[in-house]
Amino acid sequence: MSKKKLSNEQIVTHLGDDYQKFHGAVVPPIYENSLFIYDTYEKFLEAMESEHTNYLYWRGTNPTVEIVEQKIASLEKGEKCKLFSSGMAAISAAILSFVKTGEHVLSISNIYGPTTNLFNYLEKFGITHTNVTSKNIEEIEAHIKTNTKLIYIESPTTMTFQIIDLPEVTALAKQKQLNTIIDNSWATPIFQNPIESGVDVVVHSASKYLSGHSDLVGGALITSEAFMERIFYNEYQLLGGIMPPYEAWLLMRGMRTLPIRMKAHQENALKVARFLENHQSVKKVNYPGLTSAPDYELGKKMLKGYSGLLSFELVSSKFEDVKKTINALEHFNIGVSWGGFESLVLSPNNGRNYEQLRQSNIDPGLIRISVGLEDEEELIADLDQALRNL
Ligand SMILES: *Cc1c(COP(=O)(O)O)cnc(C)c1O
Question: Is 152 a pocket residue for ligand 1 (Cβ < 6 Å)?
Answer without folding.
Answer: no
